[in-house]
Amino acid sequence: MENIKLNIDKVLGFVSKEQIMALEPAVKKAQAGLEEANLPGNDFLGWLHLPSSITKEFIEEINATAATLRRNCDVVVVAGIGGSYLGARAVIEALSNNFAAMMPTAGNPRVVFAGHNISEDYLSELTAFLADKKFGVINISKSGTTTETALAFRLLKKQCEEQRGKETASKVIVAITDAVKGAARITADKEGYKSFIIPDNVGGRFSVLTPVGLLPIAVAGFDIEALVKGAQDMEKACAPTVPFEENIAAMYAATRNALYANGKKIEILVNYQPKLHFTSEWWKQLYGESEGKENKGIFPASVDFTTDLHSMGQWIQEGERTIFETVLSIEKPNSSLIVPSDEANLDGLNFLAGKHVDEVNKMAELGTQLAHVDGGVPNMRISIPELNAYYIGQLIYFFEIGCGISGYVLGVNPFNQPGVEAYKKNMFALLDKPGYEAESKAIRARL
Ligand code: PA5
Hints:
The chain is α/β, with parallel strands linked by helices. Helices cover 47% and strands 13% of the residues. The protein folds into two domains: 5-40 and 228-418, Glucose-6-phosphate isomerase like protein, domain 1 (Rossmann fold, 3-Layer(aba) Sandwich); 50-224, Glucose-6-phosphate isomerase like protein, domain 1 (Rossmann fold), CATH 3.40.50. The chain contains 18 helices and ten strands. The radius of gyration is 23 Å and the shape is globular. The mean pLDDT is 96. 5-phosphoarabinonic acid binds at residues 81-84, 141-143, 146, 149, 203-205, 289, 417.
């Protein structure tokens, strides 16, 4: 099986090969720091060798729980936010039919998401949608105290118990949380829910290959064994023993840091497949939360092409020259569709007749890359042979290890997120949460 590949040829007009190669010592230091766990954030490295530590028995246990939910539910609501949400959604959307939500379920439960916003309309509409459904819940929260998730779960638990009875509800609600602490753990133990542990040393944004991602993905009917196998193969391909220039994670980390040093402050992750939209959302959290601190960090943005070429394309082609692009390129589509010939040819598209739609997409991709390079936008390409569970597994681990290395090269602790507390403090003060009396008074004075 071949691996995903990284091509940096089209950044070389913007940074020199020497500049990238000069980062080899910093990359090696970062790799050693990860392996030896001697750099800041070293208590959150459980993801590093996670793929190779996943056993067959563990996958079987996840698949068995998924089978129980699949058997007993028409809909499974996955409640979680941030790292407890985006990985599962990214993989499920990447592997699902584009129109799955509108198609008959064919024995698969529908997987829907909650706990990632505080919208009254969203939660009311979800409640109404579930009113006549046999539904179950996967409640995912490492801390067990996240407001968005806890609020959604409070509603979902009550509704599930009312609709299905307490005993059945306890069999179709699964908790994925800390081993001992937090409300989600206490509730799971009290109610007798099946539960899985999020390891202490795996941060949310690195947790997709724990039950946080694996259970929802298995419930959606996808092959988690293949996903893990892809990640395992990438763990080998990105090991510190692999020479710098052959190690795609090391090269990605070095290249983006070299671009950043040359004033390219924004990385745009580009896809040409709508199914990859949430892969970009997951990637944005991974890199944004890991690197954006101490007034440093590449800003991770994303676009869906060719759709956004008709909106953001103008900015990318001619706006401020502080951006670079990383393109996710799927080499071979999973389906086949030929452009038909048309006698009247009013749209003038007969020159495409007989070609695969994907060939048109690929020429758009190539043409865009060259146009953007000509416009001053460095381009990297990540080639993915096919969009399937195995290669998504490779991509996940590639981005995780690339992020760990890149954060250390940048000089930050990639495994903390102190900045996410600020909004919570203000929100709790404004909502008069007990214990926030002084903050409530202070914040109201500022309104
Ligand atoms: O990466 C992170 O740490 C965050 O995005 C968390 O995953 C997110 O805030 C959800 O936290 P929790 O799983 O504790 O509910």
